[in-house]
Design a protein that fits this description.
A seven-stranded parallel sheet has the order 3-2-1-6-4-7-5. Helix content is 47%, strand content 12%.
Length: 241
C-alpha cells in the first residue's frame, strides 16, 4: 500500500529493535525497511522481535550511508527527540504524515531514525528536509526507536485513510541525490567566486541547506539554479583569463 515510503534506521545497535521496527511497520501497512550500517544484522533477536514480520527483514535494504538510503527520495523527515540549536523546519507526527502521504504518490519519501542513545548527528540532518518531533513528557522524552517508528507509522496509516489533501505539482520534486549534487555545485561556486572561505566556512552551507530543504525544490527549479551557478562560474573564470 505504501511502497514509496521508506523507514530508515541509522546505526541501530540492538538487532531486537530492528525486528520490533519491522513488526510496527507491518502493523500499519509499511514494508520498505532501510538499514544504514546496523551493528548486527541479520540476527536471531531481530527475527524473534519481528513476530511474523520476517518478510520485511528478509527484503530489508542495507546501506553503507544515509545518502544511499534516501537516494531518489523527494521528501526526507529526520526523527529527533531533541530540538537543535540551529533551527530546522519542524513538524509533529500528524502533520508530517499528511506531507508524507501527499508526496509519496510522486516519488519515494523517507523517515529517518537515529541511534538508540544519540539519535541523528547534525551532519545526518543535512540530508533531511525537516525534523519530526514526537511530543512527550518533558522529563522523560526519549522513546525506544521501535516505539517512535510505531507512532509515525500509525499517523502515516491514518493519514493514508484520509486520502490526498494537496494537488500534485506539474513538475516532480527534486530527489535527495539531485539536491545533494546541487549543494555540491553551490558550495563549489561560492568558493570559486570567493563568497565562501573554505578555511572559515562557519555555518553558511548548513544555513543554505536549511533554506533550500525548506523550499522543497522541483526538478526544473534545481536545473534553473544549477544553470545560474554554471553561468556564475563562467564569469568568474573569464575574469581570470
Amino acid at each position: 500500500m505504501y511502497e514509496n515510503i521508506r523507514i530508515v534506521l541509522v546505526s541501530t545497535s540492538h538487532p531486537g529493535n530492528i525486528g520490533a521496527t519491522a513488526r510496527a511497520m507491518k502493523n500499519m501497512g509499511l514494508s520498505e525497511l532501510y538499514l544504514v550500517n546496523p551493528h548486527v544484522f541479520p540476527h536471531a533477536d531481530a527475527s524473534a522481535r519481528a513476530s511474523g514480520a520476517d518478510d520485511l527483514l528478509a527484503k530489508a535494504t542495507v546501506c553503507a550511508s544515509l545518502e544511499e538510503a534516501v537516494a531518489g527520495c523527494s521528501l526526507v523527515f529526520g526523527a529527533s527527540a531533541r530540538l537543535r540549536s540551529l533551527p530546522w523546519p519542524l513538524a509533529e507526527p500528524r502533520e508530517a504524515a499528511v506531507q508524507i502521504i501527499n508526496a509519496h504518490q510522486q516519488a519515494p519519501v523517507a523517515v529517518v531514525f537515529g541511534r538508540e542513545h544519540s539519535g541523528l548527528t547534525n551532519d545526518e540532518l543535512l540530508c533531511c528536509n525537516a525534523l519530526v518531533h514526537i511530543p512527550c513528557n518533558e522529563t522523560f522524552s526519549s522513546l525506544n526507536v521501535a516505539a517512535a517508528v510505531q507512532v509515525l507509522s500509525y499517523e502515516i496509516h491514518m493519514a493514508g485513510r484520509q486520502g490526498i489533501t494537496e494537488v500534485a505539482t506539474d513538475s516532480p520534486l527534486a530527489t535527495a541525490d539531485e539536491i545533494e549534487r546541487f549543494f555540491q555545485h553551490l558550495e563549489e561556486t561560492l568558493v570559486e567566486i570567493e563568497f565562501l572561505d573554505p578555511d572559515k566556512p562557519r555555518q553558511l552551507m548548513r544555513r543554505l541547506r536549511r533554506l533550500y530543504n525548506r523550499a522543497r525544490l522541483e526538478e526544473t527549479e534545481v536545473n534553473i539554479l544549477r544553470g545560474i551557478l554554471t553561468a556564475a562560474q563562467k564569469q568568474a573564470r573569464n575574469r581570470l583569463q
